What we know:
Layout: H1 5-17, H2 21-34, H3 40-44, H4 52-65, H5 71-79, H6 84-94, H7 100-110, E1 120-122, E2 125-126, H8 127-136, H9 143-153, H10 162-170
Antiparallel strand pairs: 1-2
Helix pairs in contact: 1-2, 2-4, 4-6, 5-6, 6-8, 7-8
Amino acid sequence: NADNPKAEDKLIEIISTSTDQYQLTYANAAIRTIGTTKSIPHLLKLVDNKKQDVAATALGAIIKLSDKSYLPLFIDKLENGKLKYLGLEGVIKYGDKNVVPFVEKRVNDLVAKKRTTQFILSKNDTELTVAMNFLADYSKEIESIRKLYNTLLTSKWELLWDNEKQWLNDNKNRFE
C-alpha cells in the first residue's frame, strides 16, 4: 500500500510478466488501492483471464481507476461473460439514463428463474437491489422502470430473497 510510483511500476511489471494466478490477483488488488490510470492498459489484458479471481480483480481495479470512457467495457461485461456483477458496478458508477435498458435487462435476467446462491455485494445489497437503486433515480421519467418494479412485486415476488423484498418495500415511494 505504498503511495509511491515505484510501487505501481513494480506491480505493473508483475501483472505484465507473471502467469501465477495468486501473484496476479494480489497485484491487481494492490493496484486497485494505489494505482493510477497508468495501470489500466495492463489490467485490460487480464479482464478475460481464465481464472475468475484474476479477471475480477483486474476489472475491479479498472472500475476504481477509470472514468466514463470505459463505459463500453463495463456494458460488455454486464452483457457477456462471468463478471456481470462487476459490469453492473461499472455501468452504475459511470452510466446515466442511457444505460437504463442494460440495467433493466440484468434485473430481468436475475429474476428469470430461481437463484440458488444469494450474492451479497456490500452492506446486504444484492445485484438486484444495487440495480434497482440505480433505476429508482430515473423511475419518475421512464415508465418501463415502474413496470419492472411492479413485476418484481407481483409475478416475480417468490423469486426474490427476503432482503430484496424488504428493499423493494422500503423504497416503494421511489417508484410511484
